[in-house]
Write a structure and sequence with these properties.
single chain; 456 residues; alpha/beta; glycerate kinase, domain 1; Rossmann fold; seven-stranded mixed sheet; 17 helices; 37% helix
């Protein structure tokens, strides 16, 4: 049954799956650009003939561009503005009535970049050339921008850039490590876009999808100073045994691919960066929604990282101890967490099909195994893990549900959880149980959302 105003804890207990979906929906809604961007709109240039250029990239870039244009037309109807952003294929929202399309929205591939993303990055970089101190650049940034805004450094071919990106995705590297490498192998990331904008006034509006909300990591920080170094990038590539061609390797060792450590913007108008939505805000909104239904809510953290299956074991241990009355958390309750876990893709046996599924599904599969029905507890345990952008990895689901009888139903259908986990195949496992959570693109991205309901 749909949960809403007037429902209570009893309703949540009667339909835990619907309760968890409700919390996810509230978290996603809190991060929608149309709800958050209005408080951060910059003032237009004052000089006649001055330009306002809007650029950006990310899974939320289409929605951000539409919200920005709508607010700009309402507040500054006589101020000229134009621009372009790039988002993931299928992530452009329907165009609102009355919108003029002053900001062009193009689509490209994620998580592995393609030619469309390359062309978009080149056009965006070109659009900020030749600006003056009278002009304004607004950069709309969200998670996914690292892949969508791709422009290889000198000496690196585009196919090589794609291969390195794919290797990083499969390596188990965390987002900070991946984006350190991406910055140093790019002509637009790691503050280079900001450097190209100078001396114009630069305002960055960002939706955070990274643990700690580090703006230099979001979309690989194209408009902020980067503190990582070529040596850091080399160490990460070595750690995960990712090869470079000789030319780029030499350039990294020599430090010639170093990112800007200061930006050439006018001193009287420093770059401004505003976070318009964060993972913590979404978790807090979900917690408030649970409490409104009479369910006690606890937020673990919005900064959880690590292997999805290992993070799942820790969550399972906490849920079980709560169900047994051995935790400071008191059941019935919902335990919320966010962050960005990782998945190390295991080698496949000869002839074995490639696994399908992302980090949310892998978390759920690991959680189901670790819970094992939570035998010996006084409370049933339900869970939902999903990516707030609506896409878990490259599949069509946001995530998956775990129920008290997940393993029992799987066994009845001949689905061995350990086999599916061994080949990173969470999508097929939960599809076989009809337990995928499918939402389609949400047009925002504040990363992982996890809710574990220890029911009464």
């Amino acid at each position: 049954m749909p949960l809403g105003k007037g429902n209570n804890h009893k309703a949540a207990m009667q339909d835990p799956r619907e309760f968890l979906k409700h919390l996810y929906g509230v978290a996603v809604k809190r991060a929608q650009p149309s709800h958050t961007l209005g408080d951060f709109m910059p003032e237009p240039p004052t000089k006649t003939g001055a330009r306002t250029v809007v650029v950006g990239a990310g899974k939320a870039a289409g929605a951000m561009a539409q919200a920005f244009e709508q607010l700009w037309l309402e507040r500054y109807p006589n101020a000229p503005m134009s621009g372009m952003v790039v988002t993931r294929y299928g992530h452009t929202p329907p165009t609102p009535i009355g919108l003029q399309g002053k900001i062009k929205i193009v689509e490209a591939s994620h998580p592995v970049p393609d030619a469309a993303g390359l062309a978009a990055a080149e056009e965006i970089l070109q659009s900020v050339q030749g600006l003056t101190s009278d002009d304004l650049v607004v950069c709309l940034i969200s998670g996914g921008g690292s892949s969508l805004l791709t422009l290889p450094c000198e000496g690196l071919s585009f196919p090589e850039k794609q291969a390195i990106n794919q290797a990083l995705l499969m390596s188990g590297a965390n987002i900070g490590e991946m984006n350190c490498v991406r910055k140093h192998l790019s002509r637009i990331k790691g503050g280079r876009l900001a450097a190209a904008c100078g001396p114009a006034r630069l305002v960055t509006l960002a939706i955070s999808d990274v643990p700690g909300d580090d703006v230099s990591v979001i979309a690989s920080g194209p408009t902020v100073v980067d503190e990582t170094t070529c040596a850091d990038a080399l160490a990460i590539l070595s750690k995960y045994a990712i090869a470079l061609n000789a030319t780029v390797g030499k350039a990294l060792r020599a430090g010639t691919l170093e990112t800007p450590k200061a930006l050439g913007l006018q001193a009287s108008s420093p770059a401004q960066v505003h976070l318009i939505a964060t993972p913590q805000q979404s978790l807090e909104a979900a917690a408030d929604a649970a409490r409104a239904l009479g369910v006690t809510a606890y937020i673990l953290s919005d900064e959880i990282e690590g292997e999805s299956r290992e993070v799942a074991k820790v969550h399972a241990a906490l849920a079980i101890s709560t169900a047994r009355g051995r935790s400071s958390f008191k059941a019935p309750c919902v335990i919320l967490s966010g962050g960005e876990t990782t998945v190390t893709v295991r080698p496949r046996a000869e002839g074995q099909a490639k696994g399908k599924g992302g980090r949310a599904g892998e978390f759920c599969l690991g959680l189901a195994q670790a819970l094992n029905g939570a035998q010996g507890t006084d409370h049933e345990i339900w869970a939902l893990a999903a990516d707030t952008d609506g896409i878990d990895g490259v599949e069509d689901n946001a995530g998956a549900f775990v129920t008290p009888d997940t393993l029992q139903r799987a066994s009845q259908q001949g689905l061995a959880a350990s086999d599916y986990l061994a080949r990173n195949d969470s999508y097929r496992f939960f599809a076989g149980l009809d337990d995928l959570h499918v939402t389609g693109p949400t047009h925002t991205n504040v990363n992982d959302f996890r809710a574990i309901y220890v029911a009464g």
